[in-house]
Structure formats: structure tokens, C-alpha cells
Design a protein that fits this description.
Blueprint (H helix, E strand, L loop, with lengths): L2 H8 L24 H17 L14 E4 L2 H20 L26 H17 L9 H12 L20 H17 L1 H34 L8 E6 L7 E4 L4 E5 L9 H11 L4 H13 L8 H18 L19 H4 L2 H5 L1 H15 L5 H11 L1
Parallel strand pairs: 1-2, 2-4
Antiparallel strand pairs: 3-4
The protein binds zinc ion.
The site of zinc ion (ZN) has 3 residues, from loops.
Length: 387
């Protein structure tokens, strides 16, 4: 037994390499399942779903706020998408666009593909080609088709296949060609990528969990107060994946689910806590966007597309900063706060690149609200007046 397996056993984790959960009750229905398949799935899973709350947990007790997963199919999906995007970008370079400086260089060393057998190479190349032809020009966050597929693969993460060949309840109801492609790529991924990816996911979960357990409730209450919105009652599902999207993390709503890359250098250390709560804030910060739109309409001003997002970045950073400041060195060369932890938007240069005016407005008019000196509505009104 390896050291990792010992650790997993002690922490009540499933062994490395095994998938983590199925919960048919939170399945979206935009990917069609036949009525018979749905009834069968509900019938088979009802006792499990009612009695268990499976997840990749990080200690002796579940963490509050979030429900962490390291799921095989979801990780395979994002890895294939990542490979297909590389092909897509290489085939259609856009010289007029500046290079995306934030794009992480994620590599397994040595390249797992170098160890493929000829038949493995064929299956893997076919899968990447399918993703390149069907998905690579679509955005993981904005294309409903990809959001639905991601959610569905998360639901079936405990299944050995997606066609229901071995267990009928594992028939995910996907397009037959996509099912064949994923099932053919699965043994290749399981042999050459998944052990490293799953280990990285679990390491990321284990590293962020102590702070979530100690501070998560307080942070969530503070953010809910700030946005004047109740925090979701159910724990928010977080799918930890070797690869996520170009940003390193993204959040889809209805149901609210976060996907975070465990390998992305931007998501490591104390930044992991900020990323978690930034992403979760996407699910509760709608009042900010609504208030900005309302104030703009009243003043007949164009609605600034990214202002609400800059505000969410600023707010999460300010809420997280004092909590993690003691343990993290300042890393920014920008005019960022110098007291220990440098929030993500400063560290990654978001304000300097496009949100410089927003930062000034947030400091002048939003910070007083965070300090309890003005109301939410007054703060937003002042920001919009000054645009
Ligand atoms: Zn965001």
C-alpha cells in the first residue's frame, strides 16, 4: 500500500484512482434521458441518494460550504478539451491578438503520450479529433452543450462506463458516438493521466480544506451580507480538475457548480481560498449587477460590462486578505496592498490591464460600504455617477 493510499484510508477517502460520487437527484435535464432510463436511474439510486453524501472529503469531518469532487469522466472531458484547444489554437493562430499572459503552462513530465501503445494512440487521437471538431470552438462557460455535458459527466463519475454496458444505471444517455469516443479514451486516460491528475486534485483539496473548515462559514456570511443575498443552503459542488478553462476556474449556475484547475499555478497556496469564494460569489452577486444596471438606466449611461466582475474580484480579495495575510508573502509589483496577501486581481494584473478606472472607483465608493459607512445602494449609485 502506498503512502497516499494510507493517507486516503486514514482520512476516509476512497482509494486513489477510484471515482467519487453519483447523485441523480441534482441532475439537469437539458441532456435528454429516455423516460425509462430516468426511472431506472431514480429507482436504482434512490436509497443511495437518500442515505449518502459522497464526495472527496478532506478530513475527519466534511467541510462546510463546499462539496469537493475529483471525478474521472469530468477530468477526462477537460483534458480532451484542453488537448483539442491546443490543436485548434495551433491551426488558427490570431496574430493580432496579444498573447494571453495568464495562460498556464501545464505539462506532465514526461509527456504521457510518449508511452502510448499504437492502439492507445489511435483511441486518444480519435477522441482529441472529435473534441477538436465538435467542441474546441465553443466556450466551456457559455456553450449550454458543454455546460450540460460537464454536469452530466460529474453525475456519472462513479461509473466504469457511460453506456450502461456493465451497470444499466450508468447509461448516461449521451450521443452514441460521443459515448464510444469517451469509453475508448477512458482506459488510455486511466493508465497514463488519471493517477497524476487525481493525486493533484486531492492534494489541492487537502491543502485548502483547513482554511475552509476554520473560516468558510464566516466568509460566506460576510459575503452574503455584502451582497444582501442569502448564501445557498446546500453545499456548493466544486469539481476539482487537472484542467479547467482558460481562466483556471469557472462557475455555472442552475445548478451552481464550480470547476477549478488543481494544476493551474494561479490557484495554489492561499489563492485557492480566494478562488473558491470568488467563484462561489458568481452565484450570489446578482444584486450588484442588477443595481449597476438600474443606476445606469436612471442616468441614461451605457452599462459597463465588467464593472460587477471587478467589484466581485475586489470584494472577495478584501474579505480574504486579513484571513490569510499572516501566512502569505506579498508578490505583486503593482500598487496593491502591502500587508501580506496580494489579492488575485492585483497579482494577475487585472486592474492594470483593463480595470484601472474601476479600481479607483471601488476604492473611493465601494470600500466605504465594506467599512460599514454607507449603504449598498448609495455605494453603487456613487460608482455609477462617477463613471
Ligand atoms: Zn469571476
Amino acid at each position: 500500500m502506498t503512502a497516499c493510499a494510507n493517507l486516503a484510508s486514514r482520512l476516509h477517502l476512497p482509494p486513489l484512482g477510484l471515482p467519487a460520487t453519483i447523485n441523480p437527484f441534482s441532475m439537469r435535464n437539458r441532456i435528454p434521458l429516455s423516460p425509462a432510463a430516468l426511472l431506472l436511474a431514480l429507482a436504482v439510486f434512490a436509497p443511495v441518494g437518500l442515505s449518502a453524501h459522497p464526495q472527496v472529503d478532506s478530513g475527519y469531518a466534511p467541510v462546510p460550504i463546499f462539496e469537493f469532487h475529483s471525478g474521472f469522466w469530468l477530468n477526462l472531458h477537460h483534458t480532451l478539451y484542453h488537448e483539442a484547444r491546443k490543436q485548434h489554437d495551433a491551426a488558427a493562430p490570431q496574430p493580432n491578438l496579444p498573447a494571453k499572459s495568464g495562460k498556464p503552462a501545464l505539462r506532465n513530465s514526461p509527456d504521457p503520450a510518449s508511452a502510448f501503445t499504437p492502439s492507445e494512440r489511435q483511441a486518444w487521437n480519435d477522441a482529441v479529433a472529435y473534441y477538436a471538431a465538435n467542441f474546441a470552438d465553443k466556450d466551456l462557460l457559455f456553450a449550454n452543450e458543454l455546460v450540460d455535458l460537464k454536469n452530466l459527466l460529474g453525475e456519472f463519475e462513479d461509473c466504469a462506463d457511460l453506456s450502461g454496458t456493465r451497470q444499466k444505471f450508468c447509461n448516461a444517455g449521451l450521443d452514441p458516438q460521443l459515448t464510444r469516443i469517451l469509453e475508448a479514451a477512458a482506459p488510455v486516460y486511466r493508465a497514463h493521466f488519471w493517477p497524476d491528475h487525481d493525486r493533484a486534485n486531492r492534494r489541492w483539496i487537502l491543502s485548502v480544506s483547513p482554511l475552509v473548515r476554520e473560516q468558510g462559514l464566516g466568509i460566506s456570511q460576510r459575503l452574503a451580507d455584502i451582497y444582501e443575498t442569502p448564501w445557498p443552503k446546500r453545499r456548493i459542488r466544486v469539481d476539482v480538475s487537472a484542467y479547467a478553462n482558460w481562466a483556471g476556474a469557472y462557475t455555472t449556475v442552475d445548478p451552481l457548480r464550480v470547476t477549478i484547475s488543481s494544476l493551474d499555478p494561479r490557484n495554489q497556496g492561499n489563492a485557492a481560498l480566494e478562488i473558491l469564494f470568488h467563484e462561489a460569489s458568481h452565484g450570489i452577486a446578482q444584486p450588484v449587477e442588477a443595481a449597476i444596471i438600474r443606476e445606469c438606466r436612471q442616468r441614461d449611461k451605457p452599462i459597463p460590462r465588467d464593472l460587477w466582475h471587478a467589484l466581485v474580484f475586489y470584494t472577495t480579495g478584501e474579505v480574504i486578505k486579513p484571513i490569510v495575510a499572516s501566512g502569505a508573502p506579498a508578490q505583486s509589483q503593482s500598487p496593491a496592498p502591502s500587508d501580506g496577501y496580494t489579492p488575485y486581481a492585483f497579482r494577475e494584473g487585472l486592474y492594470q490591464r483593463k480595470w484601472e478606472q474601476y479600481l479607483e472607483l471601488l476604492r473611493r465608493f465601494w470600500q466605504p460600504y465594506l467599512d460599514g459607512k454607507v449603504t449598498f445602494d448609495d455605494a453603487i449609485a456613487h460608482i455609477v455617477s462617477a463613471l
